[in-house]
């Protein structure tokens, strides 16, 4: 079976590695996507265990098109017998410049599907489909497949407190992987907000499958779904998890956010392994007694919350405090205020362009 997984733009290689480690046979990377092969069991396994994927698509067809007519022809060449007596919806992600929008692409593919049935046509149901046909159109590239995930995996479903500038869980996991944290040394997020980074770090260290927080998966409605195989994968994943305690620290300057982060960590069942405290990350006293070797953070960008002058001061004071207190530590930081960071005298060992939602941002790996 051929698959396409969608992921964070800029973290495709990390997602590809994760898929390979879980048994996928890697084919190639695309922008925001990973292509690979595998068996049905892999659908359950990846949906349950992957930390950096958004949607896992069972590919039906790939092609090249520069018009809606050509997209129709590509879509029409698929055998849709599996949709007989089912309700379906087509959803599209479109990237690039086209003289048609994603709704028109969805409608075109939907028409091709209906036209391939002479009798007993499946019903279109955009609200509550049995099967979602997912199309990804980038420039002239067209990928059409079955969404086995449903709603994106980055929505973990443990958040009970919504931080106004929360980081995507999948980006948080990518950053933790970039840091190469070995789970043994002290890990710190000094500006943790609603706690996404320390919570994902704890889930990763405990090997807890993030899929267990989900209410549902789209694959459960597919005809080949085998309840026993799925239960086996779930049991195996849970058996491989642990309840050990790790040295994870998290600060924020806001009482409200620390309280929210604590609620989120309780909801994710990892409160016992995260040490939350109300501290100012720009003061060197805050790091006393915390020998953090891995620091992963998502500081304010100055776009949504504060102004750029304040951000300059914050970043400068933060790095000065770290240089004084945690020399030798590895820092992984995401920011959309990269000009501010690049004006500071910092040696970074790796930089990546990523997309945080619609916002262009960069992830830096720094040795302090
Ligand atoms: C972009 S948010 C972090 C969001 C978080 N990653 C999440 O997913 O919820 C940045 C956080 O930095 C905190 N912050 C700003 N200045 C700080 C400082 N000097 N010390 C500690 N935290 C600070 C803010 O209160 C805010 O919660």
TrEMBL record:
Sequence ranges assigned to domain THUMP in this UniProt record: 42-148
Keyword Nucleotide-binding: no
Pfam families tied to this protein: RlmL_1st (PF22020), THUMP (PF02926), UPF0020 (PF01170)
GO BP: tRNA processing
One MF term in the entry's GO annotations: RNA binding
Keywords recorded for this protein, A-Z: Methyltransferase, RNA-binding, Transferase
Keyword Methyltransferase in annotation: yes
Protein name from the UniProt record: Class I SAM-dependent RNA methyltransferase
